[in-house]
Amino acid sequence: MAHNQPRAGATGSELSTGRWLFAFSLVTTLFFCWGFAYGLVDVLNAHFQEVFNITKTQTTLLQLAYFGAYIVFAPIASIFMRHRGYKAGIHLGLTLYSLGAIFFWPSAKYQKYGGFVGCTFVIGCGLASLEVAANSYIAVLGRPQYASMRLNFSQGFQGVASFSGPLIASKYFFEGENAKKLDNVQWVYLAVAGLGLFLNILFYFCYLPEITEEALAEEIHAVGITKDEQSFWKQYRVLFGFVAQTCYTGAQVGVASFVVFYLTEQGVGISKSKASNMFSLCQVTFTVGRFVGVVLLKWIDPAFLLTVYAVMCSLFCILVATLPGWGGVASLYCLFFFESICYPCIFTLGTKNLGKWTKRGSGLIVMGVGGGAWYPPAQGALADRASSHRSYLVPMSGYLVMLIYSAGLVVDQSVKQGFTFFNKDELAEKRAAASEMILPNPADADLEKEKVDSEKGSTEYVERR
C-alpha cells in the first residue's frame, strides 16, 4: 500500500479525491465540538445569573475565561504544530477539551462559580488548539481559490452544534425546578467530555495526511509569489487580519451573549425558556447563512462578499439597538444571518499565500478570537447602566473594523490586478502567465526557422562558390 501514500508534505491539491474527502470529513467533525460548547456558554450566562444571584457583567466571566484562553494558548498551539504537525495539535486540543468538560461535574456538585470559570478556561485552551489545527488544515486542503468556501462549509457544522446547545438548555436548564439547580449541567458536560474522548481515539487510529509549510511555500514560489521570504512582521495581510478577527469575534460574542437578556427585555412577553429557544433559531439562521455563503463563495470574490456582509452587519446592529419590540427582534435575526461567513472569510483571507508562515499566521488569527473576552464585559457594563437594548451599540465597532479590513483588501486587489466581482484562481492565472512567457509563440518559431534555413542556404551557396 506504500505506493498509494501521498508524498510527505503533499499540498491539499495533490491528494487523491478519496484521501481528500476522508481528511476533509474527519476534520470537519471537530467543528461540531466547539460549536456545541460555544452554544452552551452563551445560555449559561442567564442560568448562572439566576442560580448565583450575580450581575450581567459578572456572568461574562465565562466569556472572559473562554475567549481569554485563545489569547494565551493559540500562539502556543501554533508553535506546537510547527514542530509536531496538525494531527498532534488535534490530539492536544481534544485532550484539554475533555479535561475541562469533566471538571464541570465537581463545579456543579459543589456549586462553585469560580470552578465553572476555570473549567471554561481549560476548554477554551483545547478549542484554541483545535481551531488553529482545523481551520488551517481545511484552508490549505485544496485549491486556495476555494479556501473560504471549504471553511464556511466545515464551520457550518459548528453552527448546527451551536443551536443544539441552547435547545438543550431551554429544556433542561430553564424549566421547572432546573431553573435554580445545576444538576443537569454536570451531566451535559460529562457527555461533552465523552464526545471529546471518542474523537481523540478516532483520530489516533485514522490516517491524516500532513501538509507541511515547506510544501505550501514551494507551491506559491513556483508561480512567483515570494512574499513569505520576508519577515513575519511584514505579512501585513495577516497582521491586519488579526485586528479584524479580534474586533469581529468580540462583536459576534457580545451579540450572542446578550440575546436571552435582550429578548426578555423587549416588552413582548418572551420568557427565558422561550428566549433560549429563539436563540436557537438565531443560530439556525446563522447556520443557514453559512451554507448560503458556501454557494456564493464559489462564484464571488471572498473579500468583496465580506465587505457587503460587513456593511449589512453594521446596519442591522444599529437597528437592533434602536428599534423597539418585534422590529428589533427581526433585526437581530438578520444580524445573525450576515455574521455567518465573516469569521471563515477573515481567516482564509488573512492566511492566504503565507507559505512558511502558514501555521504561525493561523495561530495569530485564531488568537484574535480572544476579542470575545473583552467585548462582553464592555457590553455588560452598558447593559447594567442603560439596557440590553442599548448595549448592542458596542458590537457595532467590531463590524466597522471588519469593514475597513475587507474594503482595504478589495481596494488593494483592484490596484494590483484590477477590480473583480468573481472568485478567481490566482495561482492558476500566474501559472498560465508564466507559461506564456516561457513557451515561444508558434508563429514566431516558424519565422525563426525560416530565417535559419535562409541563412543556412546562403552559407551553402557561398561555400559552393
Automatic annotation (TrEMBL):
GO terms for cellular component: plasma membrane. Its main location: membrane. It is found in: Cell inner membrane. It is a multi-pass membrane protein. One of its GO terms (molecular function) is transmembrane transporter activity. The chain crosses the membrane at residues 20-41, 61-81, 88-107, 113-134, 155-174, 186-207, 238-263, 275-297, 304-324, 330-349, 361-377, 392-411. PANTHER family: L-FUCOSE-PROTON SYMPORTER (PTHR43702), PROTEIN TSGA (PTHR43702:SF3). This is MFS general substrate transporter. Residues 439-465 are annotated as: Disordered. Coiled coil: none annotated. InterPro entries: MFS, MFS_trans_sf, MFS_TsgA-like. It comes from the Eukaryota. Keywords: Cell membrane, Membrane, Transmembrane, Transmembrane helix.
